[in-house]
Amino acid sequence: FFLFFFKVLQGAAIAGLGVLLNASRPSLPRVGARGSPRAPGAALPLPSRRYMGAVGSSRVMCDNVPGLVSRQRQLCRRHPEAMLSIGRGVAAWTAECQHQFRRHRWDCNALERGQRLLGSRESAFVHAISSAGVVFAITRACSQGELKSCSCDPKKKGSAKDSKGHFDWGGCSDNIDYGIKFARAFVDAKERKGKDARALMNLHNNRAGRKVGVHPVECKCHGVSGSCTLRTCWLAMADFRKTGDYLWKKYNGAIQVVMNQDGTGFTVANKKFKKPTKNDLVYFESSPDYCIRDRDVGSLGTAGRVCNQTSRGMDSCEVMCCGRGYDTSRVSRMTKCECKFHWCCAVRCQDCLEVVDIHTCKAPKSAGWTSRT
C-alpha cells in the first residue's frame, strides 16, 4: 500500500498536488527545525481565493489515490498538505529498509514491485519502519512550518532540569506527539477494518514503530566565553538511521506468536520464549528462504544479486546464491586514491583506474515466477 501510494504521489498526481498545496496553504512564516516558533496569538494570513477551488481539488486528488480506506480519504481531504509529507516518509523508510537488508536475500526491493509479504518477520519490520517513517516525516514537517494543523511542540515552555542542571525551553522542539497521533490515525485505519490475526499483528508492529522515535535534547550554551551558565534546549528527532538500526535489532529478536482462543490477541508460539512487550516485533509465519522468485511470499529470488566471495555472512556467495553458484565478471571503475590533506582545510585526491571482480548469483534452472495457485 505505502509504496503504491508513494508512486502515485511521485507520478502524475504530484503535479496536481503541488498546485493544490500552493493554493491551500496560507503564506505562513517558515519555521526552521531549530528556529523560533511563531509568536503566540499571532494572526494568520487569510487564505487566498485559490483555496476555495483547492478544496474541491483535494477531494478529487484523494478520491483517486488507490488503496485508501474511507478514514484515510477523510484525513487526506482534511490535510492534503500532509500527504506530500507522508510521501517523503515513505521514501525515507524505503531507503532505510533497503539499507538494513542490503546483505540479505530479501532486500526490501520486492515492495517496489507490489509483492505482498506473508505474516513473517520481514513483514513485521516493514510495518514498524513504515509507521516510524510517517511519524518522522509528519513531525519534521510540523517543525518546518509546512503543515497548517501543527507547529513546534507547544508544551515545551518555561524551565526544566536534567542531569546537567536547569535549562530553559526555547527554539523549536519537534512535535513528536502530533506526529504519533497523525500516524496512528492514518496508518492504522486500514488495519482497524480487519479483525483477523494479520490485522492484529500489523497494528502491534505499527505501534512498536511509532514508539521508536529517538528524541534527544539539544542545547545551546549562553554565558561569558561559552561558560554555559545558561542553557536553552529543545527536543530534536535523531537521524532516521538510528530508528532503522533500532528496528533492525528488534527484527532479529522478533517473537513468533499465535492467536489466543478468543481471537482478541496473541500469545507466544513457543512457551520457552517470553511474552512480547509493546516494543517487540511479532510475526505469525516463518520466513521462506527467498531463494527463488515467488509471488505468493513476496520473493524476487537472488538471481543476479551481487555476493561477497570472501564473506562468511549472509552476503557470502554460498549463502546469497543458495548453493547455485555464481558468475564472475571483471570491470574497471574510477576511484579516489592517494588522498592528501592540504592546510587549510582541504583533502585532494587523484583519480585512479581500478579493476575489480564482481560476483553475481546464477539463476535457477527455472527462472520464472512460481505460484501456489
Verbal overview:
Helices cover 36% and strands 19% of the residues. By secondary structure, it is of the alpha+beta class. It has two domains: 2-39 and 48-283, no CATH class; 298-361, Wnt (Wingless and Int-1), C-terminal domain (Endo-n-acetylneuraminidase fold). The strands form four sheets. It has a four-stranded mixed β-sheet with strand order 1-2-4-3, with no helix packed on it. A three-stranded mixed β-sheet has the order 6-5-7. A hairpin with a 2-residue loop joins strand 1 (159-162) and strand 2. The protein starts with a helix and ends in a 12-residue tail after the last strand. It comes from Malurus cyaneus samueli.
Task: List the topology elements.
Elements: H1 2-10, H2 12-24, H3 50-63, H4 70-78, H5 80-100, H6 121-143, E1 159-162, E2 165-169, H7 176-187, H8 189-192, H9 197-210, E3 217-222, E4 230-235, H10 240-252, E5 255-259, E6 266-268, E7 282-283, E8 293-294, E9 299-300, E10 306-307, H11 317-320, E11 326-342, E12 346-361
Parallel strand pairs: 2-4, 5-7
Antiparallel strand pairs: 1-2, 3-4, 5-6, 8-9, 10-12, 11-12
Helix pairs in contact: 1-5, 2-3, 3-4, 4-5, 5-6, 5-10, 6-7, 6-9, 6-10
